[in-house]
Amino acid sequence: MDKLIISPAPHVHSGDSVSKNMRGVLIALIPAYLVGLYFFGLGALIVSLVSVLSCVLFEYLIQRYILKGEKTINDGSAVLTGLLLAFNLPSNIPVWMVIIGAMVAIGIAKMSFGGLGNNPLNPALVGRVFLLISFPVAMTSWPSPIPLNPNYLDAVTSATPLALMKFGHLPNIMDLFIGNTGGSLGEVSAIALLIGFVYLLLKRIITWHVPISILLTVFVFTGILHFASPETYFATPIYHLLSGGLLLGAIFMATDYATSPMTTRGMLVYGVGIGIITVVIRIFGSYPEGVSFAILIMNAFTPLINTYIKPKRFGEARK
Amino acid sequence: MGGVHPKEYKFSAGKETKISLLPKQAIIPLGHYLGAPSNAVVAKGDLVKVGQLLGQASGFVSANVHSSVSGKVAKIDDAIDASGYKRPAVFIDVEGDEWMESIDRSSTIIRECTLTPEEIIKKISDAGIVGLGGATFPTHVKLSPPPGKKAEVLIINAVECEPYLTCDHQLMLEKGEEILVGVSILMKAINVNRAIIGIENNKKDAVAHLERLAKTFSGIEVMALKVQYPQGGEKQLIDATIGRQVPSGAIPIEVGAVVQNVATTFAVYEAVQKNKPLFERIITITGKSMAQQGNFWVRIGTALTTVVEQAGGMPEDTGKIVAGGPMMGRSLSSLDVSVAKGTAGVLFIPTLESARKKMKNCLRCAKCVSACPMGLEPYLLMGQSENAMWTEMERNRIMDCIECGCCAFTCPSNRPLLDHVRYGKTTVGGIIRSRR
After folding, report:
1. What is the ipTM of this complex?
2. Among residues B55, B56, B32, B69, which one has the least CA distance to residue B302?
3. Which candidate in A23, A314, A316, A319 is best for mutational testing of the B interface (most B CBs within 10 A)?
4. Which one of A3, A16, A257 has the shortest CB-CB distance to B364?
5. Cβ separation of A11 and B327 shorter than 8 Å?
6. What is the pLDDT of residues B123-145, one digit of tens each?
7. Which of A162, A252, B34, B427 is most enclosed, with most CB atoms within 10 A?
8. Cβ contacts (< 8 Å) between A1 and chain B: which residues?
9. Segment B227-268, tens digit of pLDDT
10. What is the CA radius of gyration of chain B?
11. Which CATH number fits domain A20-308: 3.90.70, 1.10.3470, 1.20.120, 1.10.3430?
12. How, if at all, do strands B294-299 and A157-158 pair?
């Protein structure tokens, strides 16, 4: 009674929090992580643990000794960046490269802009692309899927479905669906990623706009190419949807809060942009995969989209 | 579009209204709204009866004030009422409970009304009726459309979308027929033959009750609306009932609608059919730790302490007292304030839930943008408000904000979005007025 609080309305809160959202995304990543551990074994375990631990450590050190701010590692965002970075790496990549990737992701892409919410580009993707450009061989020799593989650096490697497609072979669609294929450790299983997507939607952590507009754009664009010239563009749209990092990118990377637009209309523009750039890189570019670049390029357009695409104002829609 | 779903906590739903005890001294505010306060027509030492005029409206956007008690005028002085504002008020030492003879105190329901629209509006104006939904805008003003505008439909706001509050719900259950007579009187006053009563669908008993009664009236339709805050916002309600959106900066008559709160409608019935001025209302006394949450008929000017005692007193763990609902109500520094016409309830929030949580960085998660029922960008407006970017704020439609609080409610980073938006809105509003 002696201490009444006076503050303006509202006096209640939804109970939503930063850590709840981050925890939700981590939970949604569990199925894909389990599939990664199953097919890539020891390597997946080592790479993911190193990535998560070094991301958390770098954030802690930077916040403590350079920014001298409050501890932020408890909100779960550094863990999430670490796991997402690992998901985008081959499971036979050396530990020191993982640490460099984590340092670039957290140190350069996130903390130098002021931490969570202020980064213009997706930290995990900046880390991945930095590694891809710096160590192209290590980043593009993916181990073959072998259940509970006990080998790490000396794992047998094989080409990814997208690389195969560039050279005219088509993988088995069922293998793509469950994840029995070469690739980065978290991107291989379509079904596991889709389960995560459903969870994110149910928990209202993300909306459908970004992932669906990306997937639909890729489907339509590759569909038109395939239909127009089946000999040149022999991969059907379904292969494009299920292979490479498209699902991982569309569901978990492009939907990153800080780097995606604020309005649903803006999200659709952003999603379509990512879809188009992805297909252009995949089909006409020199890299077999283009999702990471597509997302980073559209990340850079996000402030522009936010400036010019406004929400539907009340009273404007109908009269 | 937009909106949020706060937990309802309607503890006092379906609890029969109790008649509150009279206070020893009533402090009756002479103003209840942003318009001009009324001018006192009584003086210290005067003996007044229940229903006697205390303050005469001073201008068009102003309303009469009547005594809610009988007794002797002790003084006329400034006082803070439950709306949180300090205004001139009449202090009356209560003696007995003697009513003006003109007031019909029988419970017989009079359906017939032979008055002309002008006579009805005159009676409403004389009775000092203001909007009881909280804004307390004089009702007769809303019933007199500006020249060239014609009302097509009357919409009754019986949504009660604020969590905890149940006063309108209970009124509908207990005074359903009177409300419907009130609706038909209002229809006559603005000369329309169609009225829609909008009720949020979590009050199914009230919907069914009024639907049954509405069959015996012509042109009145009861509409069950989706449960979503702020469904009871005036513009949201018009959109939900007749599918028309009031444009930015316009008032409801622009789309042919006149909106009245359901409790106001009941007050209209009493004023027109029973000659009873507005001097009492139902308020909800509620809170999670409250022993006996309930709905009370309270005379305007009664101290909140008097009412709260009858509901078992203030809970010990109270950390915040809110006059009104948790989304838009005002926090009070004390219970020693009197009930005003716009007071819909008192909510006691336990200490543990009273303080705001620590603010974090904006995640840019866009949840505030999706939650905004007006299609604004709260995160952007907050940033612009912090940086005094008034021109940009005006361009981003700050004046459309209805201050419903959905943005701050939904923010995972606990950012005080509405505080900053409200500050910006006040400043930009001042700039716009100074241009005229």
Report:
1. 0.90
2. B69
3. A314
4. A257
5. yes
6. 999 999 999 987 889 999 999 88
7. A252
8. 314, 316, 318
9. 999 999 999 999 999 999 999 999 999 999 999 999 999 999
10. 21
11. 1.10.3430
12. unpaired
